[in-house]
Amino acid sequence: MTGLPEPISPAARTALEQELATLRTERETVAATLRGTDADSPGDLADQADELQRATEAARLDSRIAVIEARLAQAAAAAPPAPGVVGVGSTVTVRFSDGATRSVHLGEIADAADNALVTADSPLGRALLGHGAGETVSYRTPGGPASAVVVSVGAPPAPA
User: Fold this and answer.
1) What's the CA angle centered on 83, arms 154 and 151, to 5 degrees?
2) Burial letters for 26-52: b for 16+ Cβ neighbours within 10 Å, e otherwise?
3) Is residue 89 within 8 Å of 9, Cβ to Cβ?
4) Which residue, of 61, 93, 101, 114, is most buried by count of CB atoms within 10 Å of its CB?
5) So where are the chain's domains?
6) pLDDT, mean of residues 24-30
């Protein structure tokens, strides 16, 4: 991203809030199965391995919960990008070095149903953030360096 707090679209906020609720429910379920026993307690190795696996899962859930909470807090403190500047939620028309022009929607959460979506953490998405029409952006692809010219920047599409 640009290093500054980035706003998120209402759809992305809803998706993150739903994921957070699901993760918290999963975490409660895992926490209820943790015994909190110490390593010196009797029990077979299978019980200890299961306990370790549940503790590892709890740590994974805690980590993802913390990431989502931080992202939601950061987004709440962010102002939307200035008009004409690419930010999360912008619709951007870009012209690639081969001459092809494409309009993309810069989003935060991948959506298989949105063929025009470019995530903000993808190489192209990161390159576009903070730029405006007429600027050339450079980014790296698995095939090597690439560049594109920002043709135009539009506002986020209206909610359906």
Assistant:
1) 45
2) bbeebeeeeeeeeeeeeeeeeeeeebe
3) yes
4) 61
5) 10-77, 91-154
6) 93
